[in-house]
């Protein structure tokens, strides 16, 4: 098993499986997990519940809080796996600038899988009606570890671990 990068960002649109894969990957890497959803401001959560997409301005305070939490882990020398949509390149830059060891994992299920997953979690603040806005904002990262389709969680983690063994670039 490869050593854990200081920061592994598991990203993708809503319903991609970020939180689930990040938890399993953190366990496999003996790292901590940081779920971006836990740091969303209440106003953003309410906005999404009402079906209103977030924009750059509403995402910024959340991204800054997430970066601060990442920095706490890095300073303490604790590897961390971060689950965050990180849809745009500018968001990933804000989260990862100055972290040369950071690795990005992009989860890319197909649209039907995303819709099915979003509709199967009715108590979550992110409704399926916001999927189009997420897909419109998505700027696929270059140099990321990509997990396509709908593999089970152990298979997704195995794919990521194989890739980590061969690369440390984003």
Overview of this protein structure:
With 170 residues, the chain is an alpha/beta fold. Helix content is 46%, strand content 14%. The chain has helices at 18-29, 42-49, 56-75, 89-96, 111-119, 131-137, 153-166; strands at residues 7-11, 32-35, 80-83, 103-108, 145-148. The chain has a 5-stranded parallel β-sheet with strand order 2-3-1-4-5, with helices on both faces. The radius of gyration is 15 Å and the shape is globular.
Compact description:
The chain is α/β, with parallel strands linked by helices and 170 residues long. The chain contains seven helices and five strands, in the order E-H-E-H-H-E-H-E-H-H-E-H.
Please provide the count of β strands. Answer: 5
- Spatial shape: globular
Uncertain regions spanning at least 5 consecutive residues: none
- Proportion of residues in helical segments: 40-55%
Task: Enumerate the strands of the largest sheet in spatial order, edge to edge or round the barrel.
Answer: 2-3-1-4-5
Based on secondary structure, the structural category is alpha/beta
Roughly how many Å is the radius of gyration? 15 Å
Count of helical regions: 7
One letter per element, helices H and strands E, the order comes to: EHEHHEHEHHEH
Mean pLDDT: 87
The largest sheet is: 5 strands, parallel
Q: Distance between the terminal alpha carbons, to the nearest Å?
A: 19 Å
Strand percentage, roughly?
5-15%
